[in-house]
Write a structure and sequence with these properties.
The protein is mainly α and 102 residues long. 61% of the residues lie in helices and 10% in strands.
Length: 102
């Protein structure tokens, strides 16, 4: 984990993670954009999940349909895992602040 940095929901063109040093006073434009992208990715993941279930439930679905559904599901899972990691880091950082310790 990069202490104090937010893992963004996208990568560089060569696949490396992107991070944001968050503004502590209030969310900045890039942070709000990241929130919006995460929300969109989660919505897409729900749609991909529903579509993948439909394909897997269709005994007549061919290999091409199954491979397409699996490819989209893997892409969505990568997004969801990145979001979960990023949010987990932020939750942990919040829990570790002096005001929140028991």
């Amino acid at each position: 984990m990069m202490d104090g940095l937010r893992l963004l929901p996208w990568t560089t063109p060569d696949g490396k993670p992107c991070y944001l040093d968050p503004d502590t006073a209030r969310p900045g434009a890039l942070s709000l954009l990241a929130d919006s992208v995460e929300s969109s990715q989660l919505g897409s993941a729900e749609e991909v999940l529903a579509g993948s279930k439909a394909v897997l439930g269709d005994e007549a679905a061919g290999e091409r349909a199954v491979r397409f559904a699996l490819t989209r599901a893997v892409e969505s899972l990568e997004d969801v895992v990145r979001i979960a990691v990023s949010r987990g880091w932020r939750i942990q950082r919040t829990a570790d602040t002096p005001d929140n310790r028991l």
